[in-house]
Design brief:
The structure is a homodimer.
Chain A (H helix, E strand, L loop, with lengths): L2 H24 E15 L2 E9 L5 E2 L2 E5 L4 H13 L7 E6 L8 H11 L13 E9 L12 E8 L10 H19 L12 H12 L5 H10 L3 E3 L15 E3 L4
Parallel strand pairs in A: 1-6
Antiparallel strand pairs in A: 1-2, 1-4, 2-3, 2-7, 5-6, 8-9
């Protein structure tokens, strides 16, 4: 182990011990927040994962609620602190509360390994009920940042999610189901597409979310029936008669 | 005040004091559950409300989560304990977590009045984040029962909800919005209609939930397109040619 890595791990341990001591005075007990941040890029639906400190393990961006903080405000703050993402429209979709979800032996073993043993029943090892939020963003427009407990972030294909800490893989599955059910309604709010886009680009998004192909003509008919799209006039540019129509979202639904 | 009423109020006070003392050893801190139980009867969408002890105030059926109990199991237990309703299909739909929601002066004044003053920061007056569930039942098939903290229950027209404790009126509004969004998908799960029903009966349910009229032919087309209905053969009974078709839900979707 290099000196630099040793210093990093020492900092991680010190940070953990400090957090466990101060957390009870700052946060509500027993309730956490997890966020599922989807991106859609290169026709692929992805999820933002964070590496937990200097462990080999990844998890969703998450955190805790301050004693005098509204739940939704806490979700936005946590996302900002963990990833640098700001002004994201987060949608609450599920609250995970099985007793087994906090009994993750990897977490316990990791905490033990990195700290040489923590007080039993410490803050991080209590039972948590987690309120889950999701969002859909354009990954090219955001720049997640690392912080002491997060040493790496990555966007992972939603079909290739590795084993994650806690029940976070299940939470991603639930988020995706909700995204499918909500996509029509959320198209504008998520502000996901470019200012203007083709019907084929929109269809790619749907196909990535639903993980299946749609028939072009049916898809176009369905989208137009939602009454959320403005079709732009074609600009004459010498070969415009071959270019596809461009659309944008109507300003207010 | 009659002797009987006085005895009731004394019992309520004793129960409250006992609850506040024992609750921290039994339940998770800071998390509660509220349930919105809709019924559909006589073409009216209603919600089940409970009177809080011997106060004039009503609230949703709610309670707390035991330390070793799964969240969904707690919701079912609470509903059973508060109302006698069993084997209800509950759907989690929202978690309420604004700081202001637990600062209900009516609750504080009522607790003070009935007990002559409780320890500050007692169990009932802490901040709660509440996980909310809803269900849709046939009120004629269920028989809610009272218990010490619940002295009355009633089904109230969803358009005529009185002022309720905490943010329960807002929670009902959120539940109704979710019910509207989910109704197509939940029709079978909620097991709401009789075994067989006419298209007009089904339309009444939709009109009560959405609080608007539908055109009969459009409604029928939409319902048939869901592929959840079996149309029964008409039975010959002498005047059957005038009777409407009966439908039932397909066994598995």
């Amino acid at each position: 182990m290099s000196l630099q890595q040793k210093a990093h791990e020492k900092k991680f341990e010190t940070g953990l011990r400090e957090f466990i001591e101060t957390a009870p005075g700052i946060f509500l007990p027993g309730v956490s927040i997890d966020t599922v941040i989807f991106s859609f890029h290169s026709d692929t639906l992805k999820v933002l994962l964070l590496r937990f400190g200097h462990t080999p393990y990844f998890s969703l961006p998450g955190g805790f609620i301050k004693k005098e903080e509204n739940l939704d405000d806490a979700a936005l703050r946590i996302l900002q602190e963990r990833t640098g993402l700001e002004n994201i429209y987060l949608e609450q979709f599920y609250t995970a509360g099985n007793t087994i979800r906090s009994r993750d032996s990897i977490i316990h073993d990791t905490l033990k390994k990195f700290t040489g043993g923590l007080p039993s029943n410490n803050w991080l090892e209590q039972r948590f009920i987690s309120v889950c939020y999701y969002a859909l963003v354009d990954e090219t427009k955001v720049a997640p940042q690392t912080e002491p407990f997060v040493t790496e972030f990555k966007w992972v294909d939603v079909n290739k999610i590795p084993k994650l800490l806690y029940d976070h893989k299940l939470i991603i599955t639930k988020a995706r189901t909700r995204l499918q059910a909500d996509l029509d309604e959320k198209l504008i709010g998520f502000n996901l597409m470019n200012e203007t886009f083709t019907m084929a680009e929109l269809q790619s998004l749907y196909e990535a979310v639903y993980q299946k192909k749609f028939v072009r003509t049916n898809f176009q008919r369905k989208m137009l029936s939602l009454n959320v799209l403005d079709r732009l006039d074609k600009q004459y540019n010498g070969k415009a008669h071959k270019a596809p129509y461009l659309y944008r979202f109507v300003k207010s639904k």
